[in-house]
Amino acid sequence: MRIRRKYKELAKTILLFLATAGVVAVAATSPLILVALLKRMGKRYPTKAEERRKIATAFYRLKKSRLIVLNKKKDGTFLVELTENGKQRAKEIRYQDIFIQRPKHWDGLWRIVIFDIPDKQKNAREALRNRLREWNFFKLQESVWACPWPCEKEIELVVALFQLYPFVNIIHAKSIKNDAQLKAHFKLLSQHR
């Protein structure tokens, strides 16, 4: 999907809202649909004409790109929802925005992510591996990665996005034999438990 930079954040906000809310009913005629949707999102409708135009442009580009649809009901309300492509794009946005926060102090627990993902889901397996690399996990084995920071929610979100529930597990361990290389990797040598 191509969206100009100035519309990108607005489009992401709309897509993620619809991904969370599902189908949204708005009681409005066509020019006011955006206002109603923004109110449902908890956003204040901008007063400057240029800002309103930017939002309207982002909204209608999503429609034109077939990422959202508007369906008018008999009572005059509109249902705004994501298309299958829109749902996929929202997943991609969520995936791109996931990061792990490093706490000030290590709690002394290793988080070990293990997985055995079948070849028919090879792309999902590689996406998980790539994300573990980006998050600076330490590779113990091809499908066994370690991290000292709390990361369970982030891993579970990736697992949910790629529907990998039966294939991925997270283990908490107080120690890993010969963990000096891991501690050096995460700069934990000077930290005490």
Question: In words, what does this structure look like?
Answer:
The protein has 193 residues and is an alpha+beta fold. The chain folds into 2 domains: 5-96, Arc Repressor Mutant, subunit A; 103-185, Alpha-Beta Plaits (2-Layer Sandwich). It is built from 7 helices and 7 strands. The strands form 2 sheets. The protein has a 4-stranded antiparallel beta sheet, covered by helices on one side. Strand 2 and strand 3 form a beta hairpin. Helix 1 (5-21) crosses helix 4. The longest helix is centred in the first third of the chain and has 17 residues, at 5-21. It starts with a helix and ends in an 8-residue tail after the last helix. Mean pLDDT is 82; it is low at 1-6.
